[in-house]
Write a structure and sequence with these properties.
The chain has 224 residues and is mostly helical. The protein is 75% helix and 3% strand. Helix 2 runs antiparallel to helix 6, helix 3 runs antiparallel to helix 5 and helix 9 runs antiparallel to helix 10.
Amino acid sequence: MNLLSGSIGVILCLGGNVRTAFLLMLAAAVFDFFDGLAARMLGAYSDIGKELDSLADMVSFGVLPSVMLHETMVLCGTAVWISFLPLVLAVFSALRLAKFNIDERQHDSFIGLATPAAAMICGSLAYYVSLSDNWLTALCAVPATLPVLAFVLSLLLVSEIPMFSMKFGKGKQTDRATMIIRIAFLGIVVLSAVLVLVLGENWSMTVFTSFIGYIILNVISSLL
């Protein structure tokens, strides 16, 4: 279902339907989360399951967000050759997922940005830009903005920055530091939702600001 959602999302996005594509990305994330949760709770692990999970993620959280950035640039009237630059995110997503599968350090947390987090930033931004005409839309219309975003996210995907996960169900006791940072992130999500509601912004900005906050929180935690 993750892979199917991502595949349909790519097709719709190439047809100019960025909004529905983002909703399908969210659906893919829900399927991905509960698939992993069920596997951890039931102890239903297999090598083929691990590989299939990454292959599905490559489409839904690697190819789809890259295509959404590309399509957003096209809709903003950017030159065609420049609009292909965000596809670098798909390449680094593949590298990230391949590293994750063979990295023994990433069982309960992540080293580098997880592909779904990068995808949510790109997808929510593309969704918002398709709806609104404000300073953020104008910023994304600048030819360099979205390629730079894709490049920065690409570097974070393969970085060595420790990043916490929201994985539950492995039967292990969560350490105090991880619990604190998880609570801090949930606080960021709530604050983002409240600000978006008060300011009358679209709900997609809650997703965008929450995951930007996720990155900042992890960077600060790593530095400290």
